[in-house]
Amino acid sequence: MEAGAGIGRAPGRALGRALGRAGVIHTPHGPIRTPAFIPVGTKATVKTVLPETMSDLGAQALLANAYHLYLQPGADIVEAAGGLGAFMNWPGPTFTDSGGFQVLSLGAGFKKVLAMDTGGRTVDDVVAEGKDRLALVDDDGVTFTSHLDGSQHRFTAEVSMRVQHQLGADIIFAFDECTTLMNSREYQQVAMDRTLAWAQRCIAEHQRLTAERTDRPYQALFGVIQGAQHEDLRRRAARDIGALDFDGFGIGGAIEKDNMSAIVGWVSEELPEDKPRHLLGIGEPRDFFTAIESGADTFDCVSPARVARNAAVYTFTGRFNVNTSANRRNFAPIDDECTCYTCRNYTRAYLHHAFKAKESIASTLATIHNEHFIVGLVDRIRASIESGEYVDFRDDFLARYPA
Fold this sequence. Notes:
By secondary structure, the chain is of the alpha/beta class.
């Protein structure tokens, strides 16, 4: 399907289950064949890896974070450089998230963690132990303290749209209030209602800016679905956000792995079938099968690069740490089945040495492998859907990859 805005999703081939599918998202900087994994370059860089390398290993698009780029170097500088892609020397499609996740997670002191061990508790004013609250949310927006220099800032729906229009990504996200699993049901509902109101304001500001900036390529705006683990809230949020004039949708918030299939399925059943669905923050191999069967089309996560910097690498038989003593004299590649640059040219023994010697090349080589593995895995899932061999591919992979 080709949307009037210049971005759409082709129906493609569906799985035996109605919600899973393959297709195409069209952007001004090229198509994205889905399902697809979108690597994260938070500050306009995938840490330790060149953009050219990300292209070589098969990445179709990259995602950067509006919050971080707003603080450093500033959205005006990225705009002056010609937009996010030109600034980071990436010719393909780009995404920016709205900054809502960082405002919540950094503000509450949990950094990247939303699905904390609640011990059965619900705490609406949740702050990590030993941390100060750095963000205060009200109905109009969020006031927050920069984690870089302590300066005070204000994000609203309109500010998020203006920042993301300056950054110039092909796909941008509406500003939302992200919650944790520790928040009560009552607060989840308040945040969901607030997110809906902000979504309407985002659309209005996005349309205003689009009309003003006719010399720029169209930016597709995705609405974000919240509601935590509550079926009625997720379905209501999906219906409400799905009825608005968005080009696609993000499924956000804290999601317990055991409930992922149900939550993504609830949302997918309520959203329009002809628009893409992006699942925010999912990057572990087994999770892709669950999410894709439940209706998700694209995914982003920092995990492949982050765990690589800690010497953890993926293989088709599971994840392991390459800096353990067992690899000191192991002259095999990380994975005999892998065709990435690292596996073609370097051994486990070399990576073991590089990590032990604290050489930066260790993180580079491990990140190249992990991003290639995850991008390639989702590509193979897509190919198996298109060929009608998905079930066999899934069962073979999951039989080998530990739970």
